[in-house]
Write a structure and sequence with these properties.
With 424 residues, the protein is of the alpha+beta class. It has helices at residues 15-43, 114-174, 180-238, 285-288, and strands spanning 57-59, 61-77, 80-84, 89-94, 101-102, 107-112, 240-242, 247-252, 261-262, 267-272, 277-284, 296-301, 304-313, 321-328, 341-358, 370-374, 379-384, 386-390, 394-399, 406-408, 420-422.
Amino acid sequence: MKNRPALAIPEDIPVSKKISRVGLVLCLLIGLSSIAVFATSRFGIAIGMSSATSYQTELVTKASFEDRVSAYGELRSQQLRSLVTEVAGTLQSIVVQPGDQVKKDSPILQLSNTTVQREYQLAELELQEQQANLAQLDAELSDQYLNLNNERKLIGAELSTQQAEFEARQSLAAMQIVSQLELNKEQMKLEQIKLRLKLADDRLQTFEQTRQAKLRAANLRLSRATNSLDMRKADVDALTVRAGMDGILQNLNEELKLGQWLNQSVSVGTVANPYNMYAELRVSASDAARIKSGQPLMINVNGQQIDAVVNRVAPAVVRNQVQIDASFLASLPDSARPDIEVSATITVASEQNVLVISRPAHFQRAQPFSLYVANNNNTYTLRQVLVNSYSSRQLVVSEGLKEGEQVLLADPADWAFRDSIKIP
C-alpha cells in the first residue's frame, strides 16, 4: 500500500489576532451607525422607515362637506289599536289573518259564551215585564184619577145647587115666609158641601203627588231594565272581536287556538293604520350628541330612498343606543308596512366651499392635531392644523393649511414630531 500523506493540522490562531479582527468589525458597525444618526438628524431620514410612497399624501382642496350618521330601525304606525277581549268565551273562529286589510267593523275573532247569551235573553224578558208593569200602573192611576175627579165634579154641582137653594131661602126669610131655623139649616148644608169640595180638591192634589212618585219609581225600574239589556247586548256583541278602526291587522297572538277559552281583558292582536307611519331609529350613543331635531335624513324603505326629518331624540340611552324618531316628507311605497326594518342616513352637518382633506387615522377630536406639509425640495414641515368639522371620512380645516398644498397623512409620531423631515 502506498503511504497516504498525513493530514495537515492548522495551527491555532493567536488570541491577539482574534481580538484584533473583532475590534475591526465593531469599529465598522459603530461607523455605519454614526452615519445613519447624522443623516437622520440632518435630513430627517427615518432609518427602518419606508419612502414617501409608503405613506398617503393628498392635496388640500375646496369642496362640499357632509357629515352623516347611519341609523337602523323599524317603521311604526302613529295610530294603533290593541284588540282585547271584553268578555270571556270560547274561540270559535279566526276570521282574518295578519296583514289583511280591515274596516272599523270588520270581525277579527268570533267567541261563544252561553251564559252571556242567556243573560241577554233574561234581560229582554225583564225589560218587557217592566214595560208591562208601567203600562198597568199608568192605567190604574188614570182610573183612580178619573174617579176622584168625577167625585169632585159631582160635589161641585151639588154646591151650586145648594148655593141657589140657600139664596132662595134667604129671600123667603126676608119676607118671613120661612123661619130663621130653616134658613140656618140650609146654610149649614151649604157649608158642609163646601167642606166636602175642599176635601175632594185635597184628595186630588195628594193623589197627583202619589201618582207622580209611583210613575217615577216604575220608570226607574224600566230604565234599569233597559240599561241592563243594553249591557247584556254589548256583551253579546263583544263576543265578536272587531277591528275598531280602518287599517291592517298587524299581528295576532300566536298562542290562539280554536276551541281555546279566552278570559276577559286578554290581548289578542293589534290593528295599525298603514297610511300614517313614522320611523323609529337607533344610533350609537356617541353619534347621538350630534343629532338634533329638524335635521334631514334619507330613509331606505324596501330599496326606495324617502326624504324625512328628525323630530325627536330620546333622552335615555338603552344598551348604548339612543332612539331617534323621524317623520316622512314624502309618500311611502305601497310595500311599506308597520314593523318593517329600515336603514337611514342622517345629515348632521353640511358646508359648502370649504377646505377638506381625508381623515387621517391618528386624528382624535378635542386633541391637538398636526400634519407634515410638503415643501418644494421633497421635505415636509410639521404644521399645527385647526379642524372645524369632521366626519368618519373627511376633515374641514379652518386654519393651518391652504388650498393646493400637499400633506402627508401619516402620524407625525412616526418621526418623533420633528420640525421637518425629508423622504426620498
